[in-house]
Amino acid sequence: MARSPMIRLADFLPYRLSVASNSVSRRIAGIYEERFRLSVPEWRLVAILAEAERATPLVVARLAEMDKISVSRAAKGLIARGLVRALAHPTDRRSHFLQLTDSGWSLYEEVAPLALELQDELLASFTADEVAELKRLLVKIQAAAGATAPDREARSPAIFPLAESSDA
After folding, report:
1. Are 84 and 96 in contact (CB under 8 A)?
2. Is the distance from CB of 85 to CB of 99 less than 8 angstroms?
3. For the chain, which ranges sit under pLDDT 50?
4. d(Cα 136, Cα 138) in Å, to the nearest integer?
5. Res 46: pLDDT
6. Distance in angstroms (rounded) separating the CA atoms of residues 153 and 58
7. In the prediction, which pLDDT does 2 show?
8. Is the distance from CB of 55 to CB of 97 less than 8 angstroms?
9. What pLDDT was estimated at residue 16?
């Protein structure tokens, strides 16, 4: 019986992407948790709401590629801390909108510059062309992987730049 071809993890793209993502997330999580008592899902929710101004939990889940339970837990924690508010949905009683409070905006304005600094550190050895190419290739990988497209409520390039723009 012939053996199946072996996967060399160093050459297996899904593995490499996962490891790289986990490394970056761990580094970011340290900053968010230590200084701001934020989990990575909570920060993703805050960042999405800062860009979208308001969104339903379903839209947040799609934009962040997170499951609904993670979004719900993040939202509950942020609501309890007074950083996010839930607003009634005008046409769907089963849903609601999430929106940053003034305190949530203040937190975002503290965290965002640190997130951008970390991004700059991670990309410091890249040329501008390499950064643009990396972003372009990530969009292609995400599309090839069948990443879910956000529904119409969240199709704005400002809200979901990776799916809409190659210069994001």
Report:
1. no
2. yes
3. 148-168
4. 6
5. 97
6. 10
7. 75
8. yes
9. 95
38: tokens are 């934020």
- Cβ burial of 62 (10 Å; 0-12, 13-18, 19+) is buried
Quick one: angle between helices 68-80 and 40-52, nearest 10? 80
Delineate the domains of the chain, giving CATH numbers in brackets.
16-116 (1.10.10.10), 126-168 (no CATH)
The closest of 135, 68, 133, 119 to 98, measured between CA atoms, is: 68
Torsion angles phi and psi, residue 166, rounded to 5: -90, -5
What confidence score (pLDDT) does residue 154 get? 40
Tokens standing for residue 42: 């909570």
Tell me the C-alpha distance between 69 and 71, whole Å.
5
Q: So what's the pLDDT on residue 148?
A: 46
User: Judging by beta carbons within 10 Å of its beta carbon (0-12, 13-18, 19+), is residue 65 exposed, middle or buried?
Assistant: exposed
Report yes or no on whether pTM surpasses 0.70: yes
For 113, other C-beta atoms within 10 Å of its C-beta total 9
